[in-house]
Amino acid sequence: MTARVLVERRSSDVVTLILNRPEKRNALDFDLLDALTRSVVEEGARASVVILRGAGREAFSSGFDLDALTGTASDLEADAAVGRAADALRDCPVPVIAQLEGHCHGAAVDLALHCDLRLATDGLNFSLRAVELGVVYRTELLSRLVAITGFARAEHLLFAMPVLDAATALSWGLVGEITPASQIDMRIDQIATRLAGAPRSAVTGTKATFALFARDEDSVRTAAPWRSAAASSDERMSALNAARARLGRPPQR
User: Fold this and answer.
1) Residue 104: predicted pLDDT
2) Cβ-count burial of 186 within 10 angstroms (0-12 exposed, 13-18 middle, 19+ buried)?
3) Residues 6+ apart with CB under 8 A from 27
């Protein structure tokens, strides 16, 4: 089987992790998320900077692969796999730069928002449509989203379900910079090289300090029953099959 995550070392200090399912717009599945979690832990221990991107130019990732979901409470296992990968990105001791090109939706947004820097091309399409699929997102994602955008915009993203373009994502703080597609590789390389050349103790210490704000265990425990109820609801299967139908895929039985 083709590797779900490719590892490219630009130098001994800078490593790029590539979500490698271009035939499915780099949709996430269990194998990919497990490979990503392992790679972030392993490479973050020896590199000075980690870059995360999707294979090709069409998508960072379209989100969790609908074909890998069941429409039942067992899909919370998929959510847990996303959480492990997002936690690895957050807990990585060195900065992680997300290179966002094309589509970035659903669970892929969770990964992107747990990176330290997010640079986008002007062709970005960014959305969170969990409610339409009968899903209550992880508390950690919602907390991060509120911290970045503010409460009103976070609610708008979840309930109005817009697809944001790059300029709107920038104005909402979801990305830090927009770069033309022809220059994105060069721009990220500039930032990564500069970070890799900075004193490591200052870089890792700054990231560790930011991490102090990231955890809220009480909220996670409180929200767990709501997420379980949504995942096992009667409407969930119908919502998932409707999404499959829009993509021209057969229903889940």
Assistant:
1) 98
2) exposed
3) 21, 61, 62, 63, 64, 65, 66
Average of per-residue pLDDT across 148-163: 97
Where is pLDDT greater, at 24 or 245? 24
| Backbone φ and ψ of 226, nearest 5° | -65, -40
pLDDT at 73: 83
- Closest alpha carbon to 89 in 115, 50, 60: 115
- Predicted model pTM: 0.86
Domain 5-182 fold is: 2-enoyl-CoA Hydratase; Chain A, domain 1 (3.90.226)
The first and second tokens of residue 38, run together, are: 């392992």
